[in-house]
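Hi everyone,

Forwarding the result from last night's run.
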Amino acid sequence: MARQHFMKLLGFNLQQIEVGKTSGRLILVPEHRQQTGLVHGGVTSTLADIVMGFAAYTMVPATHHVVTAELRVSYLHPGKGPELEAIGWVLKAGEKMNFCESEIWSLQPQGKLLIAKASSVMATIPPS
């Protein structure tokens, strides 16, 4: 976690780390938004990538790492509101690849809204 510089730069905090599942929240600031005030799509996809990557990381030996080999994001609604919640999980674990999914939720005063679904393949990197 100490080496997650980009995650820290965004201000994203993991709140739950379990075997095969992680989640966290991001309080939105102006730097997370594009010119119309909506959450930038890159922020949304980054959150999806982070929670899926950490979910996969919980499934590999302690000496191994994971990297994103494939990422697909479907944007369902515009990102609005003061905060986002990202949930990621391993759908199918493997020795060399983990297939993962995630959901990004906008936490709005009127309730939660699913703004994106993502899937990824996380490749396992053995120690060198």
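The longest helix spans residues 41-57.

Cheers,
N.
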